[in-house]
Write a sequence for this structure.
């Protein structure tokens, strides 16, 4: 147990019942205060977040395929896919936590369906939350923006118009394995522009294209990846808070 903050006893009550599983009384003033989080910069980044992309450089990002420095373009505080250079990933491993990613589709509309503003956010490099310009652009539902690709359509499509920024907040809890067997599946919560798209959704396994999936054991922390699907999708303000 984290040490009691005895100096705060006056903030609460000591003549109340003891809560199950904690040892604290109801309204116990000595219970540790939640850590304070302040915000910084124009995008209000939580002060304790791990900033994965702050807008200036692709330091910390590498080619998913080769591990060489990422070749996407950086300008005006965002990174943009350079088609043909391939998916990129963080150099570091990341696990359970809150992932915040902002993206923008090109203002100039090109293509339709899966061919318009397609990219993707791959948790652990394996589980894709779809990025797509779905503004008045229908496609198969388990491939729409915010879909768990090939598994679950989102509950809603709150995408902004092409050229405007969108914000994903993704709460990720990875699968748990014991040896070769799955103990509990990955569970994901996704908000796009503040609207819930998935709530504590158990996943079937890593996302696949045109096939079923299933789990195979992997590490709980692996790099976050972004997809080069050939479209000029931009990203900014990417951060992570472990949970
Ligand atoms: Mg995609």
């Amino acid at each position: 147990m984290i040490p009691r903050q005895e100096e705060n006893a006056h903030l609460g009550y000591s003549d109340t019942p003891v809560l199950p599983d904690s040892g604290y009384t109801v309204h116990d003033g000595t219970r540790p205060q939640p850590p304070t989080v302040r915000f910084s910069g124009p995008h209000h980044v939580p002060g304790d977040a791990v900033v994965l992309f702050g807008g200036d450089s692709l330091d910390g990002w590498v080619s998913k395929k080769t591990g060489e420095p990422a070749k996407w373009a950086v300008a005006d505080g965002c990174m943009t896919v350079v088609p043909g250079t391939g998916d990129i990933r963080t150099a570091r491993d990341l696990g359970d936590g809150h992932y915040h990613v902002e993206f923008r589709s090109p203002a100039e509309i090109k293509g339709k369906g899966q061919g318009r503003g397609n990219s993707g956010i791959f948790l652990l490099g394996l589980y894709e939350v779809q990025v797509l310009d779905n503004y008045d652009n229908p496609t198969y539902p388990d491939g729409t923006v915010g879909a768990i690709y090939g598994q679950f359509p989102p509950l809603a499509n709150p995408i902004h118009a092409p050229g405007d920024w969108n914000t994903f907040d993704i709460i990720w809890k990875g699968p748990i394995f014991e040896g070769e067997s799955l103990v509990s599946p990955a569970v994901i919560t996704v908000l796009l522009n503040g609207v819930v798209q998935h709530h504590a959704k158990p996943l079937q396994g890593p996302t696949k294209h045109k096939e079923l999936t299933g789990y195979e054991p992997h590490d709980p922390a692996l790099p976050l990846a972004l997809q080069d699907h050939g479209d000029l999708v931009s990203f900014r303000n990417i951060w992570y808070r472990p949970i």
